[in-house]
Amino acid sequence: MPDRDIPLASWPRRAALEHFRRMAQPAFSVTVPVDVTGLRERAAAHGATPWLAYHHAALEAANTVDGMRQTLKADGTGVREFELIHASTTVLRDDGSFGFLTLPRDPSLAAFAERAKSHLPRIRSASGDLFAADAPGDVREETLVHMTALPWFAFTAFTHARGQGDDRPKIAFGRFTEQGGRLLMPVAVDVHHALCDGAHVGRFFEQFQSSLDEI
């Protein structure tokens, strides 16, 4: 299905849209432990690191959730739904700062990883502007899911920075920890409540775990 404008007159979420879009802080965030046992070995078979594998699985999951593919139109007239969404994530640079890397959606983990690995050295060696050395191609900013990884600690909650009018889904991945013989990773999802409810986030986590398990 191509990008489309949602007809609000018949949209079941219209009341939620009108209720939450006027709030000063309309987003909500949840953090859930995700099972990543054996991910390193499964990812390696596709030429990917665990970092690339969970980014890919999260992006695939986000594309299955309609609310995560939607955005509030800038002119205030309604909601736009994208056929596909992509990702932008943070990369630690050699100078201790960070930069952004665009990750276009690709159903193949191997192809997704190959493209990302070809761009990572350039992002790591860049400095200055956060977007320096990124090569988004034809990926539009409004179609991005914002992602970040914090492998230094296993958080139990996370708050994302949001600018004025920012309604993009945001996902943070934490440190792997062993619990009960399984390897778990905390994942925080932050969404705009005018577009997503708890049911949307629940579907995301269900599909995310399934995507990880299927690697």
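Next protein, fold it too.
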Amino acid sequence: MGNIELRQGHYAPAADHLRHSLTILQRLGSPITEAHALDTLGILHLHLGEPEQAPTYFREALTRFIRTSERTGQALSINGLGEAARAIGRPAEALAHHTDALAIAAASDARHQQARAHAGLGHTYRALDDPDLARIHYEQAHATYTELGMPEAEDVRAYLAALRGHLRRDRP
């Protein structure tokens, strides 16, 4: 329910459902599912405009994913750390996290997380005023999201359209 509420933009009910789920999962001893709930709480805080709180949840989720050797989950949480770093205004951290997430996702064939990492790198390079590198990563994200039939493809298409006319021609 928490994920559904989050996707619909109903953040207060999402938080209630996620925290309740987390309590139950901790009692059941389900570390992977618990990690997913923690990761989703991190995403919720990003949507609430509280990026300073999100890394705590992403790190807790990452710890559980590492403990259980869940590589796709590791990419998931590391991408979350990148998104939080960018939102807080730490682009160097964002680049490092998304680059790490991309490597893990590629090694584990987690295509959705590869696309998410490329989109994160695109956002960060755009924020760093490097539209050429932003475009390269957005194109890769768009291709992967499109191949997977994911709605994020449309968002990335819009980011690419916004970059048109802003590409620097002084690079080889």
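About the second fold: The CA atoms of residues 97 and 150 lie 23 Å apart.
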